Amino acid sequence: MSAATAIIWSPENSQEEFIVFVDDVAEYERWKGGATDIALSRFVGNFAVLKTSTSVGHTGNLGEVSKQEIQNVFFGGDKSKHAEDAIEIILKEGKIHKGDYSHSYKLTLNPGRGAGSVKGQGNTQGR
């Protein structure tokens, strides 16, 4: 099992939790502390907003949130906003959580830095 660092954000008065994975916690903390010269790609491995299939809490099978849901939940339906904008909100306002997510999602670890490392986990491994 591998540990992962997630940033979890929940809208006000909601049980839904949205998740972004961070590869480099030190760089993330520097960025959050005001180092605006750090690109998100230096510490965000997978540019996707995730949530559990049950939409309640942060345990269970994780899946990518649709573009429409991002626009509705984060921006009140503003169609000019994208996942990257929502990721910034989660990173700025969310709480850090270290845990074992290896059972729940097939992660591509920062493909922007080259070919990346693909790890199949849980019941999808070996298929």
Automatic annotation (TrEMBL):
Pfam families assigned to the protein according to its UniProt record, in alphabetical order: SBDS_N (PF01172)
Coiled coil spans: none
Residue ranges occupied by any Ribosome maturation protein SDO1/SBDS N-terminal domain in the UniProt entry: 13-100
InterPro entries in UniProt: Ribosome_mat_SBDS_N_sf, SDO1/SBDS_N
Origin superkingdom: Eukaryota
Name the UniProt record assigns to this protein: Ribosome maturation protein SDO1/SBDS N-terminal domain-containing protein
Biological source species: Kwoniella bestiolae CBS 10118
Native organism taxonomy: Eukaryota, Fungi, Dikarya, Basidiomycota, Agaricomycotina
